[in-house]
UniProtKB/TrEMBL annotation, chains A, B:
Protein name, entry field: Recombination protein RecR
Chain intervals annotated as zinc finger (C4-type): 58-73
Keywords, ordered alphabetically: DNA damage, DNA recombination, DNA repair, Metal-binding, Zinc, Zinc-finger
UniProt feature coiled coil, ranges: none
Taxonomic source organism: Ulvibacter litoralis
Biological process, per Gene Ontology: DNA recombination; DNA repair
Protein function: May play a role in DNA repair. It seems to be involved in an RecBC-independent recombinational process of DNA repair. It may act with RecF and RecO.
HAMAP family xrefs: RecR
Keyword Repressor tagged: no
Homology family: Belongs to the RecR family.
Amino acid sequence: MDFSSKLLENAVNEMSQLPGIGKRTALRLVLHLLKQPKEQTHKLSLSLQNMRDEVNFCENCHNISDTKLCEICANPNRLSHIVCVVEDIRDVMAIENTSQYRGHYHVLGGKISPMDGVGPSELNITTLVEKVKSGVVEEIIFALSSTMEGDTTNFYIFKQIEAYKVVTTTIARGISVGDELEYADEVTLGRSILNRIPFENSLKSS
Amino acid sequence: MDFSSKLLENAVNEMSQLPGIGKRTALRLVLHLLKQPKEQTHKLSLSLQNMRDEVNFCENCHNISDTKLCEICANPNRLSHIVCVVEDIRDVMAIENTSQYRGHYHVLGGKISPMDGVGPSELNITTLVEKVKSGVVEEIIFALSSTMEGDTTNFYIFKQIEAYKVVTTTIARGISVGDELEYADEVTLGRSILNRIPFENSLKSS
């Protein structure tokens, strides 16, 4: 693209570094900002910069937090002996939205993926193993996505904590509530039959 | 969405003000920035702010420019007596990419659209009419999109300059080069038959 302005070109180039934002979309977004009051751009760029410079990660679970301990870890009503292992903060938000979980989290920050250059040392695994070693954890719930990378990560962590006295579970895979069986994929349907639960259990719902 | 950090929430909220960016996408983009070096966020926010604060519009054609006159208007080899009227700077870039046009532009900054609260006074129409009045313009080429708003805008401008001695043209509508007739919409195909051109003319191409 041939820009008539260096300033515009810079802004478009930086914007298009974001994932899923191509040059055309970046140009559309930047031109939108030009039509809005200057204040909007100021607020946007200030909020991004503040966030990047000042954001903290919870010492205990690596969740994003403005304080040393995140709200969940700091809450005495949450059960610290149950730890749900997730990939990133969006999973924490998703599980919190269900209001069905009262334990703690442990945010890995990704999945083991040699293809993308992500090994175990890039993830928050050591602190999780330490937590298990210290004896405060009774149950580890694996809640990574069920992809090859997710399974690898689960298994890697499992091997590290196997020797310690801790229950390991994984979230149930099955047919989504409301979905029709005939459209479900075979793997999911197969697992949901293998892992069937007592009927009475399905009656206690949220 | 329930954020564990105010800083994160602010950044996501500001980001999701952009057109076509919802809260989920905004969160994805912001989390991506968190995984990148701080410098990337700094460069992004600085480039946006610089652009918004310092960008200029060409005095003559309202194109975005870092100088008082844009490169096109300042270029003595461009024909100043032919003016192509476009909606925004992206149209200038698109036409420039064809290398087929040697005249000047006039960027309106939008189309007349009462539904969106855009009237003639919000657009750069007065300066165009002044330009025509001053007698330097011999031909006005309308190159707005052929929507109701585009047609309204064309007609509004046409009425304003009708009294002056100036040729008004509009870019050709027709079947895209390489397209198959059977898939073309009827209006376009109809126009391309009505506005057929001498066969020899089609031989001189870029």
